[in-house]
Amino acid sequence: MLQCKELHQEKKISHEYGSVSLVANDPLYDINAIYEDFGEEMLIQYGKPDSEKLQQFIQKGIITKKEIDQFKTVVDIRLDFIMMNLDTEKQMMSMLQNRTIQASQNRMRA
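User: That's the sequence. What structure does it adopt?
Assistant: Structure tokens below.
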């Protein structure tokens, strides 16, 4: 299938029963090899951390917010205002409070 010239030229072959597309895979990186070859400074300087994963690590108590904050640089502060009814606001505040309590409990266990 990968040797099909038409698929490489057209990137998609259609048929009455469906189609086949040639899609490039995202590159895979061997982080350990990069770390060993170039060191942690290169990863810190050029790496882009996943904010959601970092937040999960903080909530689980794996890493502290203070450890992450030392590498953060404030670029812009966005301020949004949202109008909502009181019930929705109470529900959102309750969810935020529950998330904060859960993160605190996770830190106590670690």
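The mean pLDDT is 85.
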